[in-house]
Amino acid sequence: MAVCARLCGVGQSRRCRRRQRHNQQDQGSDSDMDDEEGVRIVGKTQAVTGGPENPSAAAGPSVAHEATAECGRANVRLSYGQSASTGPPNPQSLLDLPPELLVGIFSSLPGTELPNLALVCKTFRQILNTETIWRRRCTEEFGMREDLRKIEVVGVSSRELYAKLLHPYRHILGLWQPDIGPYGGLLNVVVDGLFILGWMYLPPHDPRVEDPMRRRPLFRIHMLESNKAAVECMYGHKGPHKGDVQTGKKDEFSTKCNQTDHHRMPGGRQEEFRTWLEEEWGRTLEDIFHEHMQELILMKFIYTSQYDNCLTYRRIYLPPRLPSDLLQPGLFKGTYGSHGLEIIMLSFHGPRARATKLTGDPNVPAGQLTLDVDLNRPVHLPDLEHQRSVEELSRLVLGVHEEAQQEAQSPDVAPQGVAAGDGALAPQGAAAADGGGAEGLELAMEAQSESPQPGPSSSSSSASSEAQPFVLPLGVMARNEVYPRTCKMCFYGTGLIAGHGFTSPERTPGLFILFDEDRFGFIWLELKSFSLYSRLTDQLAHAYAPNMERFEAMLRNMQSWTS
Fold first, then answer.
1. For this UniProt entry, which segments traverse the membrane (predicted)?
2. What is the distance between the alpha carbons of residues 305 and 412, in angstroms, rounded to a whole number?
3. Domain boundaries, position 152
4. Is residue 514 part of a domain?
5. Domain end: 144, 165, 186, which one?
6. Among 39-48, 163-172, 332-341, where is mean pLDDT lowest?
7. What number of helices (H) and strands (E) belong to the chain?
8. Sign of CA dihedral 30, 35, 36, 41
9. pLDDT band for position 454 (50/70/90)?
10. 3-class secondary-structure state, position 419
C-alpha cells in the first residue's frame, strides 16, 4: 500500500516531489524529466522533417509501442489494439497506467489488501470489480481448482465467493482435534471445489494398519442457493441439513446441527449401533468374540453418539521437519490392542522422538504422550535365534532403562549404548542426554555402524542405512502378524500405560524399532505387546506449524485438555 500511495501521488512522496520541483525552479535548472521530454520532442520533430540526424525516422512512431509491448510480456498485455500514444510515455502514478496493467498489478496483491485499495479513488474501485482479479485470489490463496467461470454463470461472482465464503471462513481451514472426551479425533477442513468441507479422518479397520485412511464429511459451507454462505450438517444418513459454525476464541470453533432428527434411523438405537459398528470396525458384534472388546466398542458408541455432531474443535499443527530428524515427522496410524487403530503424531525434540495421541481410548486418552524415545540410547539386536527370546530382549532393554534412571539421578553420567551378547553396558560414544539432538543422534548411529551387527551408517537418511533381520520374540502379542522382517535401527524408549479412566498412569520401558521411512514399531515389555505404526500419506493443506515454538506450545495445550 505504501508503494501504491507513492505511485498514486499521495502521502509524503508527493510533498517530496513538490519540494524537489520548487528547489529546481529556484536554481533555474530544468529537471531530468523535462530534459528527456525535450529530447523526445526534438526527436519527433526531426522524424517529421526527415532530417539526417534521425536515420530511423520512419520507425519513430513504433518505438513507444515496442517498449510498451516489452513491459507487457512479463505478466499482462498492455494493449488491446490501442495506438502507441495511449497514456503518457512516463507515467507518474498508477492512474497513468492502462487499466489492463492495473488489473495485473492488483491481482497479485493479497485479497485482504484490496478493500483498502478500493478506498483510494473511484478508478481503483471500478477496476477492482474485475472478476479476473478475484479468480486469481481464490486460486492462489485457497487452492481452488474449479473453473470459477462456471459459478459466475449461475449468478455467484468470484468476488462474492471470496468475500462471503472463503475469506470469512479462512480461519477454520486446516487440522483440528474434536473435543470428544478421551477419544479425540482428526478433522481436516479444506476448500473442495465450490465448498468448504470438514472431513473427519478415521483409521482403517483393525488390524489393517497399512490401508489408507477413511474419511467422513461432517459439515459443508457453500453459496449455491443464495448470495450468502450456508452451513449444512452432513452427519447421519439422510443427506445435508441445516447446521451452524461458530468461531469465538482463537484457534477454536464449534459446529452445531439444527436438525438432529436427521441423525435418527427408523430402527432406533439398535439399527444406529449396527450401522455405526459396520462403519467403525467393518464387522458385526457377533464377529467380535472378545467380551472386553465388545464392552469397549459399546462404550465408545454410547459416548460419541450423544454429541450429535455438536462439537468444539481446537487447532493442531503438523511438526516442521528439521535436518537432525531421524525421519520425516508427521501422522501415523498404529495398533493398540483391543482398542483398535489409533492416530498419533510423531515429532522430534533434540535427542528425543515423541508420539502424541490424536485419537485415544478410556485408558490413555487423546492428547497424551504415548511414546517417548531416547535417540541417544541405541539398542543392538542379537541374531535371529536370540531375538525370539523375550527374556533376552527384556535383559537388553531393562539394562538401558536402569542406566537411564541412574542418569536421571546423576545428570553428569553419559548415556551408554547396549550391545547384545555381552550382558553388560558397553560405551558406544553417544552424547549426553542433554546434548544437541543432531550431534548426539549422529554419534549414536556412528557407534551402531562400528558394531559387529549390521546397522545404520549415517544420520542423514534412514533409507540409506543397511537393514538387519528382525523377528518378534515368542510370547509378544501382535494385532497384525504381517510386519516388516528387517529394520534399520532400534532405540530405548518408554510407553504410557494406565488403568480405565486414565488411572495410575505409568511410563514403562520398551523398544522402538525403525523399519523404514514410513513404518516403525514399539514393543511394550510389561504388556508383552507389539504396536505397528504406518504413515498417513494424505496431502494435508494449511497444516504445518509456522515454527517449532508454536508447535511445542500446541503440544502442551493438547496434553492439558485431557490431563
1. none
2. 52
3. 94-165
4. yes
5. 165
6. 39-48
7. 16, 21
8. positive
9. very low
10. coil
Please write down the HEC assignment for all residues of 234-300: CCCCCCCEEEEEEECCCCEEEEEECCHHHHCCCCHHHHHHHHHHHHHHCCCHHHCCCHHHHHHHHHH
* Final residue in a domain of this structure, among 108, 139, 165: 165
* Rounded CA separation 520/511 (Å): 11
Question: At which residue does the C-alpha cell 549390521 appear?
Answer: 454
Contact predicate 509/398, CB 8 Å: yes
Whole-angstrom distance, CA of residue 531 vs CA of residue 59 = 79
Q: Is residue 160 classed exposed, middle or buried when 0-12, 13-18 and 19+ CB atoms within 10 A define those classes?
A: middle
> How far is CA 331 from each of CA 290, 318, 346, 533, rounded to the nearest angstrom?
29, 8, 6, 10
- For 508, the grid coordinates are 514403562
Asked if residues 39 and 32 have their Cβ atoms less than 8 Å apart, the reply is no
DSSP state of 9: T
Could you tell me if 283 and 510 are in contact, meaning their C-beta atoms sit under 8 angstroms apart? Answer: no
Count of the separate structural domains present in the chain: 2
Say which CATH number the domain at 154 has. Answer: 1.20.1280
- Residue pair 351/437 in contact by the 8 Å Cβ criterion: yes
E-only strand ranges, 272-422 = 312-316, 330-335, 341-349, 352-357, 369-378, 417-418
Residue 518 lies in a domain: yes
Per residue in 142-175, pLDDT (tens digit) is 877 666 666 655 667 788 888 888 888 989 999 9
Residue 538 lies inside a defined structural domain of this protein: yes
